Structures are given as structure tokens and as C-alpha cells.
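Hi there, hope your week has been kind to you so far. Please have a think about how the structure follows from the sequence. I've dropped the whole record in just underneath, so have a look:

_____
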Amino acid sequence: MAKGKVGKTVGSLGDYLKEQRVSARLSLRQLADQAGVSNPYLSQIERGLRKPSAEVLQQIAKALRISAEQLYIRAGILSPDDGVGGSVELAIVSDTGLTERQKQSLLDVYASFLALNAADSADEDSSTGSSAEADPVAEVREDAPTNTETDSDAVANEG
């Protein structure tokens, strides 16, 4: 079956889009016109053959008068488990100053940082050593002068 080419999330996205389009009583052609995409492209999205960009999803959401965030989740751009509504991801995908390729690169880097931090957190939980040794921020804080040191240096420089 052709749906398997792009992935499960896109298939459910296509089904969801079709359901929303039908409930809005719009033809495929009408929605395509309102969203500013071609009729065949929208058809391919609905059938799960194409994965639309965040920008296209935003246009479709606007035309259907539904939440773009919901489409991002269904497309796999956002995770529903992202805590505060995926604010970082939403900021990236809604930034008009970035190209789609740049947006995807930032999303990939962000996801890799989250995965790395989760793995580091799991490692710290399983080890008995101090986590401050592996924390560069903690090392910087330890080396930073305290307020009393800074104040005494300022007094010494005044004299």
C-alpha cells in the first residue's frame, strides 16, 4: 500500500485533514484554493503520500479554521508530550524569517539535545558519582567570584 512510503503519522494526518475538510463541507479543490496549494498536492497529503511542510500545514489550518498546533502534532512536527505546548517547536515553525529547511534543521537539533539530556539524566540516575563534575555550568559557577570578592576587589581598586 502506498501509505507506508511516508509514515504512519502522515497517514493519520491525511485522514484527519480529510475528516476536517468534509466536516467543513469543502471540496478538495476549494480547500486547495483557500490554502494556496495545488489540488493534486493536497490530495497526496490526504492520502498519506506526501509530508507537508509546517508552512503548508499552517495555511491548511487557517483555511479549515482549526489549530495549526494540532496539525503539527499529527504530522509529527510536535510531540503532545512536550510539556508547555511545545513552545520551542512552535516558535521555530511559526518563524517567518526561516526557510523550511532551516526550521527542520533546528527542530532536529533541538530534538537531539533533548534526547542527549534524557540519556545523560538516565546515566546520572544510575551512577553514584557527583553530577557536578560532568556539569560545565556548575564548574563555571564554582569558579565565579562571589559578591564579597567582587566588592573587596572594587574597594581595593578605588584606593
Summary: The CA atoms of residues 86 and 102 lie 18 Å apart. The mean pLDDT is 75. Residues 95-142 form one domain.
